[in-house]
Amino acid sequence: MTPSSSGQIILDNQISDGIRSSSGRIPSSISSESKDEWTISELRARQELKVARDKRHLVHVKERLQRDEIDLVRDETRLVELQREEARLEAKEWGF
Questions:
Q1: How far apart are CA 87 and CA 81, in angstroms?
Q2: Which long-range contacts (CB under 8 A, 24 or more apart) does 37-40 make?
Q3: CA of 33: how far to CAs of 8, 28, 75, 77, in Å?
Q4: End-to-end distance of the chain based on CA atoms, in angstroms?
Protein backbone atom coordinates (compact mmCIF):
# COMPACT_ATOMS: atom_id res chain seq x y z
CA MET A 1 0.00 0.00 0.00
CA THR A 2 1.47 3.36 -0.97
CA PRO A 3 1.39 6.34 1.39
CA SER A 4 -1.09 8.15 -0.85
CA SER A 5 -3.43 5.16 -1.02
CA SER A 6 -3.30 4.67 2.74
CA GLY A 7 -4.07 8.37 3.16
CA GLN A 8 -7.00 7.95 0.76
CA ILE A 9 -8.29 4.96 2.72
CA ILE A 10 -8.09 6.91 5.97
CA LEU A 11 -9.86 9.84 4.34
CA ASP A 12 -12.54 7.57 2.86
CA ASN A 13 -13.14 5.96 6.25
CA GLN A 14 -13.49 9.34 7.88
CA ILE A 15 -16.00 10.42 5.25
CA SER A 16 -18.05 7.29 5.76
CA ASP A 17 -18.00 7.92 9.50
CA GLY A 18 -19.59 11.30 8.89
CA ILE A 19 -16.69 13.55 9.83
CA ARG A 20 -17.52 16.82 8.10
CA SER A 21 -17.41 20.48 8.96
CA SER A 22 -20.57 22.55 8.91
CA SER A 23 -19.85 23.54 5.29
CA GLY A 24 -19.92 19.91 4.16
CA ARG A 25 -16.18 19.96 3.61
CA ILE A 26 -13.67 17.60 5.16
CA PRO A 27 -11.54 19.60 7.61
CA SER A 28 -7.98 19.98 6.39
CA SER A 29 -6.66 18.67 9.68
CA ILE A 30 -8.07 15.24 8.74
CA SER A 31 -6.53 15.00 5.28
CA SER A 32 -2.97 13.70 5.23
CA GLU A 33 -2.55 14.49 1.54
CA SER A 34 -3.30 18.21 1.41
CA LYS A 35 -3.71 21.21 3.61
CA ASP A 36 -6.64 22.35 1.50
CA GLU A 37 -10.15 21.21 2.23
CA TRP A 38 -11.76 18.74 -0.17
CA THR A 39 -15.37 19.09 -1.15
CA ILE A 40 -17.51 16.00 -1.39
CA SER A 41 -17.59 16.51 -5.17
CA GLU A 42 -13.80 16.59 -5.29
CA LEU A 43 -13.58 13.47 -3.16
CA ARG A 44 -16.14 11.72 -5.38
CA ALA A 45 -14.20 12.72 -8.49
CA ARG A 46 -10.96 11.43 -6.99
CA GLN A 47 -12.67 8.18 -6.04
CA GLU A 48 -14.08 7.82 -9.57
CA LEU A 49 -10.57 8.18 -10.96
CA LYS A 50 -9.22 5.63 -8.51
CA VAL A 51 -11.98 3.14 -9.39
CA ALA A 52 -11.39 3.64 -13.13
CA ARG A 53 -7.63 3.21 -12.66
CA ASP A 54 -8.17 0.05 -10.59
CA LYS A 55 -10.54 -1.38 -13.22
CA ARG A 56 -8.00 -0.72 -16.00
CA HIS A 57 -5.30 -2.36 -13.90
CA LEU A 58 -7.53 -5.38 -13.30
CA VAL A 59 -8.18 -5.73 -17.04
CA HIS A 60 -4.41 -5.69 -17.69
CA VAL A 61 -3.81 -8.27 -14.96
CA LYS A 62 -6.53 -10.54 -16.42
CA GLU A 63 -5.02 -10.21 -19.91
CA ARG A 64 -1.58 -11.06 -18.54
CA LEU A 65 -3.00 -14.07 -16.72
CA GLN A 66 -4.61 -15.34 -19.93
CA ARG A 67 -1.30 -14.97 -21.79
CA ASP A 68 0.53 -16.74 -18.98
CA GLU A 69 -2.00 -19.60 -19.00
CA ILE A 70 -1.53 -20.01 -22.77
CA ASP A 71 2.25 -20.01 -22.29
CA LEU A 72 1.93 -22.59 -19.52
CA VAL A 73 -0.09 -24.96 -21.71
CA ARG A 74 2.49 -24.59 -24.48
CA ASP A 75 5.33 -25.19 -22.01
CA GLU A 76 3.62 -28.27 -20.55
CA THR A 77 3.06 -29.66 -24.04
CA ARG A 78 6.73 -29.11 -24.88
CA LEU A 79 7.76 -30.81 -21.63
CA VAL A 80 5.68 -33.90 -22.46
CA GLU A 81 7.22 -34.01 -25.95
CA LEU A 82 10.74 -33.82 -24.52
CA GLN A 83 10.00 -36.50 -21.93
CA ARG A 84 8.69 -38.81 -24.65
CA GLU A 85 11.73 -38.15 -26.83
CA GLU A 86 14.05 -38.76 -23.90
CA ALA A 87 12.28 -42.05 -23.08
CA ARG A 88 12.44 -43.09 -26.76
CA LEU A 89 16.19 -42.37 -26.95
CA GLU A 90 16.85 -44.24 -23.69
CA ALA A 91 14.83 -47.23 -24.94
CA LYS A 92 16.77 -47.18 -28.21
CA GLU A 93 20.07 -46.99 -26.30
CA TRP A 94 19.10 -50.05 -24.24
CA GLY A 95 17.94 -51.93 -27.32
CA PHE A 96 14.18 -51.89 -26.79
A1: 10
A2: 38/11, 40/15
A3: 8, 9, 47, 51
A4: 60
46 within 8 A of 33, measured Cβ to Cβ: no
Is the model's pLDDT at 68 over the cut of 80? yes
> Residue 12 in contact with residue 44, Cβ under 8 Å?
no
Render pLDDT for 28-53 as a digit per residue (tens, 0 to 9): 555 455 657 899 999 999 999 999 99
6-15 long-range Cβ contacts below 8 angstroms, 24+ apart: 7/31, 7/32, 7/33, 8/33, 8/46, 8/50, 11/38, 11/43, 12/43, 12/47, 15/40, 15/43
Question: Which tens digits make up the pLDDT trace of 58-67?
Answer: 999 999 999 9
What is the distance between the alpha carbons of residues 83 and 76, in angstroms, rounded to a whole number? Answer: 11
pTM above 0.70, yes or no: no
